[in-house]
Amino acid sequence: MQFQFDVAVIGSGPGGYVAAIRSAQLGFKTAIIEKYNTLGGTCLNVGCIPSKALLDSSEHYYNALHTFAEHGIKVKEVKVDFEQMIKRKSEVVKMTCDGVQFLMNKNKISVFNGIGSFVDKNTLKITKADGSAEQITAKNIIIATGSKPATLPGVQIDKKRIITSTEALSLEKLPKSMIVIGAGVIGAELGSVYARLGTKITMIEYASSMIPTMDGTMGKELFKATKKLGIDFHFNHKVTSVENTGKEVIVKADNAKGESQEFRAEYCLISIGRKPYTEGLALENAGLKTDERGRIEVDEHLETKVKGIYAIGDVVRGAMLAHKAEEEGIFVAETIAGQKPHINYLLIPNVVYTWPEVAGVGYTEEELKQKGIPYKVGQFPYRALGRARASMDIDGLVKVLAHKDTDEILGMHIIGARAADMIAVGVTAMEFRASAEDIARQSHAHPTYMEAVKEACLAASENRPLHI
């Protein structure tokens, strides 16, 4: 049988386009299929990149109102130009997506725009927007179609007033009020964006804390920091209905006592997570199906039960993170090439890009308790750092979890300025199975935020932090 490509990738998000690049680098003739006209998937177009652009813009505005004067910077009539803010976000997105197109050209990867679906296990049909179609064949196919926003049972997302993160990133006018259902990563990030810009935010969460999947200390600290923005929190609440009346949204929820409460706002953002996106793939034509959660089942090599078909990122088990998908894309490409790559899923960091930022890697304290692993804790607050006081970023702390007997670092969790960048040292330390003492004995530049990591390791290793 004559094959047109060695590798065909369905989906051009971080997992898909990285898989394509690595495949091309390894000498494979590679194709990538994307249903939309721009590359980059959810992350670049309506996820990671645009949300970060708005997070930064809102933080600048908030600081102009609340901290510039203390820095000795006087400004008059600070206003939000929301239209320009959205325009800048779109420009950042375009620049980033254009960069992916450049990389496709550089690596001689064939790009096909349209919906990719299986004809059989080696043949893909690409249906274009105008209805026309073409077919390609490939020895190996990588499914990287990502995910889409999840919703609540019985709740219809109309994309007008009942919206997802996609619509929240492109509103035409700044809302006066918004209900955010879900205080996880997406809800925390976008809720804080609009709260900083002056929108009255009401946050409803089923769990008892913010970011409930991360270390409990992080959720408590983020709550304290975020509450300063004037967000009205309602934890332990189960949403029962969401109704768009035309001019406002009415949300009904039961509290922990079973009492029904009613909330009203201009918009309601549904941010309860995401679910795998496999619509239109015609998986059955390749002999595949999804599990009860809509995921494609794969083995330890990320290969499906059909030889030569792989799946990565949000459509398979594990955390729905762009960098997790990237690692899996590289893993599959190198596996196809006969190499022996590895991924330590415990060491894939999780980040919340609020301000202060939150980042964690390894085990949480709750997980260590559940597993019965003996551990010790070292913490160091940002407010004890000279660098944090200089920048007025004193909210937050570094928390290090080390094995009680061996001192090996088992987890690192940071909330504070630049936590997203700082967590890399935790990944490195744990990859090389370093002890808390190993980090504590390294010289850290002064004054920096990273000194908090050294101090937390001192606290975990020998209970002797120097500056508290």
Automatic annotation (TrEMBL):
<feature type="disulfide bond" description="Redox-active">
    <location>
        <begin position="43"/>
        <end position="48"/>
    </location>
</feature>
<dbReference type="InterPro" id="IPR050151">
    <property type="entry name" value="Class-I_Pyr_Nuc-Dis_Oxidored"/>
</dbReference>
<dbReference type="InterPro" id="IPR012999">
    <property type="entry name" value="Pyr_OxRdtase_I_AS"/>
</dbReference>
<dbReference type="InterPro" id="IPR004099">
    <property type="entry name" value="Pyr_nucl-diS_OxRdtase_dimer"/>
</dbReference>
<feature type="domain" description="FAD/NAD(P)-binding">
    <location>
        <begin position="5"/>
        <end position="329"/>
    </location>
</feature>
<feature type="active site" description="Proton acceptor">
    <location>
        <position position="446"/>
    </location>
</feature>
<dbReference type="InterPro" id="IPR016156">
    <property type="entry name" value="FAD/NAD-linked_Rdtase_dimer_sf"/>
</dbReference>
<dbReference type="GO" id="GO:0004148">
    <property type="term" value="F:dihydrolipoyl dehydrogenase (NADH) activity"/>
</dbReference>
<feature type="binding site">
    <location>
        <position position="314"/>
    </location>
    <ligand>
        <name>FAD</name>
    </ligand>
</feature>
<keyword id="KW-0676">Redox-active center</keyword>
<keyword id="KW-0560">Oxidoreductase</keyword>
<keyword id="KW-0520">NAD</keyword>
<feature type="binding site">
    <location>
        <position position="52"/>
    </location>
    <ligand>
        <name>FAD</name>
    </ligand>
</feature>
<dbReference type="InterPro" id="IPR023753">
    <property type="entry name" value="FAD/NAD-binding_dom"/>
</dbReference>
<keyword id="KW-0547">Nucleotide-binding</keyword>
<feature type="binding site">
    <location>
        <begin position="182"/>
        <end position="189"/>
    </location>
    <ligand>
        <name>NAD(+)</name>
    </ligand>
</feature>
<feature type="binding site">
    <location>
        <begin position="145"/>
        <end position="147"/>
    </location>
    <ligand>
        <name>FAD</name>
    </ligand>
</feature>
<dbReference type="InterPro" id="IPR001100">
    <property type="entry name" value="Pyr_nuc-diS_OxRdtase"/>
</dbReference>
<feature type="domain" description="Pyridine nucleotide-disulphide oxidoreductase dimerisation">
    <location>
        <begin position="348"/>
        <end position="456"/>
    </location>
</feature>
<feature type="binding site">
    <location>
        <position position="205"/>
    </location>
    <ligand>
        <name>NAD(+)</name>
    </ligand>
</feature>
<keyword id="KW-1015">Disulfide bond</keyword>
<dbReference type="GO" id="GO:0006103">
    <property type="term" value="P:2-oxoglutarate metabolic process"/>
</dbReference>
<dbReference type="Pfam" id="PF02852">
    <property type="entry name" value="Pyr_redox_dim"/>
</dbReference>
<dbReference type="GO" id="GO:0005737">
    <property type="term" value="C:cytoplasm"/>
</dbReference>
<keyword id="KW-0274">FAD</keyword>
<protein>
    <recommendedName>
        <fullName>Dihydrolipoyl dehydrogenase</fullName>
        <ecNumber>1.8.1.4</ecNumber>
    </recommendedName>
</protein>
<dbReference type="InterPro" id="IPR036188">
    <property type="entry name" value="FAD/NAD-bd_sf"/>
</dbReference>
<feature type="binding site">
    <location>
        <position position="273"/>
    </location>
    <ligand>
        <name>NAD(+)</name>
    </ligand>
</feature>
<comment type="similarity">
    <text>Belongs to the class-I pyridine nucleotide-disulfide oxidoreductase family.</text>
</comment>
<dbReference type="Pfam" id="PF07992">
    <property type="entry name" value="Pyr_redox_2"/>
</dbReference>
<feature type="binding site">
    <location>
        <begin position="320"/>
        <end position="323"/>
    </location>
    <ligand>
        <name>FAD</name>
    </ligand>
</feature>
<keyword id="KW-0285">Flavoprotein</keyword>
<dbReference type="InterPro" id="IPR006258">
    <property type="entry name" value="Lipoamide_DH"/>
</dbReference>
<dbReference type="GO" id="GO:0050660">
    <property type="term" value="F:flavin adenine dinucleotide binding"/>
</dbReference>
<feature type="binding site">
    <location>
        <position position="116"/>
    </location>
    <ligand>
        <name>FAD</name>
    </ligand>
</feature>
